[in-house]
Amino acid sequence: MAKTTKNLMATETVSVDLEAEFQDSNIKEVLEKLDRELIGLKPVKTRIHEIAALLLVDRVRKQLGLSAGAPSLHMCFTGNPGTGKTTVALRMSEILHRLNYVREGHLVSVTRDDLVGQYIGHTAPKTKEVIKKAMGGVLFIDEAYYLYKPENERDYGAESIEILLQTMENNRDDLVVILAGYKDRMDKFFYSNPGMRSRIAHHIDFPDYSANELLAIAKLMLAAQNYRFSPSGENAFSEYLQLRMKLEHFANARSVRNALDRARLRQANRLFTSAKKTLTSIDLMTIEEEDIRSSRVFLEGKLDTGSSKI
């Protein structure tokens, strides 16, 4: 006890420049990239910033001999499809690498099919091979609740879970596991697997995007490919979003990306079949209103709201 007190007193005379450590770690670049890449998601970004700050301070504490043991970094990302979970996992792997919490900082993204076999003796080798690839980085398991199927007595998901639990406990200084999926299903999964729940330190919920946020995302996606909306095209896409969000299988930014891909197809066909054969760069870049309104969503959306007018 006296020795510990003496060591603590010795460290009181040592100072550290936290801002300099922050700059040297190069995590500022990753956090700024995350802010640029993802529209909205303020609660998610705040939590990632908090985790980054914790790890930076923990690293500084180690330099002063104030180690508190390796923090638990396994995480759970919950939310609907297309809300940025995979992108955040990728940036998290970069942060962990730059702060020396993982050796390589790569992201290995898998689903149940990559981990669970279809016959006896097949699951363990599959799961261990995935873990081997992910060592030194981050293992991202999407729709993780599918690992557990209690209704099927011959299912081998439980075997994969047991191997993951052992690895998460024994190798947490060399591997971070991020589970992802719908919130209600992940809650049920953790209720049925208390061992897994106890190993997850950070639970982050990803909210759906608003229509305005989705429009901003669409404009960023177009700009990245050297496209843009005309003013009337932007208004049409805003209407498109209001309708699409009410239909089935809406997947936030993923649905926006798919819609833009189809709009580009229609734009290309419009340009190819038009009488105007000499095109400017503006012609080639611009998504017009007709490229948006040709979508069947305008028909389906109106039918869904009970309107017979087409």
Written account of the structure:
With 310 residues, the chain is an alpha/beta fold. Helix content is 57%, strand content 9%. It contains 16 helices and 7 strands. It has helices at 2-11, 18-25, 27-37, 42-63, 85-98, 112-115, 123-134, 157-170, 183-192, 194-199, 211-224, 231-244, 253-273, 281-285, 289-293, 297-304, and strands at residues 75-79, 107-110, 138-142, 176-181, 202-206, 228-229, 286-287. The strands form 2 sheets. The protein has a 5-stranded parallel sheet, sandwiched between helices. A two-stranded parallel ribbon has the order 6-7. Strand 3 (138-142), helix 8 (157-170) and strand 4 (176-181) form a beta-alpha-beta unit. The longest helix has 22 residues, at 42-63. Mean pLDDT is 89; it is low at 305-310.
Task: Detail the poorly predicted runs.
Answer: 305-310
Q: What is the straight-line distance between the termini?
A: 81 Å
Q: What share of the residues lie within helices?
A: 55-70%
Number of helices: 16
Summarize the biggest pleated sheet. 5 strands, parallel
User: Approximately what portion of the residues adopt beta-strand conformation?
Assistant: 5-15%
| N-to-C SSE string, H for helix and E for strand | HHHHEHEHHEHEHHEHEHHHEHH
> Judging from the principal axes of the Cα atoms, what is the shape?
globular
**Average of per-residue pLDDT values:** 89
Number of strands: 7
Q: What topology, given as strand order, has the largest sheet?
A: 2-3-4-1-5
